[in-house]
Amino acid sequence: MTSAPTHPVDDRDPTPVELANCDEATLLGMLDKMEQRHGFVPREISEEISRLVQLRLERIERIRGKLDSTIRRDVQTHVAHWSNEEGNLIMILHAIQNQHGYVPREVAMELSRELGVPLARIYEVITFYHYFKLQPPAKHNVVVCNGTACYLKGSLELLNELRSRLGISEGQTTADRHIHLDVVRCIGCCGMSPALVVDGKTYGRVKTSEVGGILDSVKKQEAKP
What we know:
flat, 3 domains
């Protein structure tokens, strides 16, 4: 007697419980498979997924509401602290950057509402002063000195080597936010040119062949327990 063939899980439509426990990527994969199997997404599955999506959106909105209230409270605290100071916008922005490591857009928008200052004006100040950052800080900072002495000794070659190895240009951060690459006019170490500064540590008389080893040392430091 021949037993009935059994079908793998992938050959049947998911149950509501399975759908509820899926992340977004898995749901998309299931939808693709159902479209390949049926030529469309069955109505009951479509309705169940729509219900789950709505529930998740409602949870996200609740979370966003809590975050918004936290941002509002923090901004109000900074504004109150510097309310009696002339030119307090810069001081408030310093306080925000000290808190977050950069100036998040949502915080700048809340500051605009709190002060009654156009958002464009806030961004004029942020972009005028190089101290302020608009992106989250990287774990590590690599700075190339491009002063006259370093330039004459080959800082451009070092910069090109870093660009190639990191896949970014100066002023940018790697996609994993691991390393930020920057260039400065002078670090005051002309006798050590060409020079790099990595997380506050200065490397002098650097050769392009040594750049890889310097980057590897950053990874080794992170690997230490």
